């Protein structure tokens, strides 16, 4: 339990602030990477909470199983104790009924023994002397022997019954001791379970509340991460025959044919060319520098976007869009036509311009489209 409480304390200490309370990142790529890290951290924390809750439930269930088994054993011992008590009462009753016969038999046996040994070693001679005949002497001798044997037999039976009684009494005492031990164990288990239920009642509620909060934070971060993608997905590309005359296009070739020759939006150097997934790049430029359209097209979106600052989305036709984010000022409005090199905004205080190229609403490597370094 101490390990569980320690883990919970650590989780409480590392819970992140809501997205809106975080400092504004210096760049969009930094924000994305931070967002991904925080999402992974939140998911790990939620999984840890889930494992902790499951461990507590398992411990409580284990105690409940012990309590059920202890109660079953108690009932079994009660039945055995009741059966043993009944048998013990039967033996006591038999012993009580046998006691008068035993006393009488001992009295008779004593008298016979005294009569037999009245003359000591000469008992046999006394019998022969007092007998009327040989047959009479033999009859008297055999009668005394039978009497002694019968008395011994009855005494032996009483002793056997007494031994059985003592044995059953010992067995009953052992069962009663075992019964008391299980009663004690049951009481300790019930006490422990009650304490755990009291301690873990509030703890489980707190864990569930934290898990709910983590899920909300994860959903919030997922929504922020997907907001730009959803915005671009909502931009509908018009068929080529409908957008001629509405979008300024070069007279001979379209944007796909110009791949690799699009003008960079601002004078500067890319800062994240070695990233494993180049969904977008940052170009470092002086604050206030003019940001230009890399190709002919139409402004599909111009405005603020949470986490990205001021953003411009340009539709170049042929399902190709460029995204310019982290701008300081915007110089165009939604629906406005632009041509290659047209000013669309200015570099902001971050001295970075985020550039992303999308083909069919999916990000592609901008380095293969732009004429960087020119």
UniProtKB/TrEMBL annotation:
What range does the record give for the signal peptide? 1-21
CDD domains on file: M23_peptidase
Q: What is this protein called?
A: M23ase beta-sheet core domain-containing protein
Q: From the UniProt record, which GO molecular function terms apply?
A: metalloendopeptidase activity
This protein's species is Dethiosulfatarculus sandiegensis
List UniProt keywords, sorted A-Z. Answer: Coiled coil, Signal
Domain M23ase beta-sheet core: start-end pairs: 278-366
Give one Pfam family, short name only. Peptidase_M23
Q: Which domain of life is it from?
A: Bacteria
Sorted alphabetically, which InterPro entries does this protein's record hold? Cell_wall_metabolism_enzyme, Dup_hybrid_motif, M23ase_b-sheet_dom
Gene3D superfamilies hit by this protein: 6.10.250.3150, Glucose Permease (Domain IIA) (2.70.70.10)
KW Coiled coil (keyword) present: yes
Q: Indicate the segments annotated as coiled coil, or none if absent.
A: 32-94, 179-224
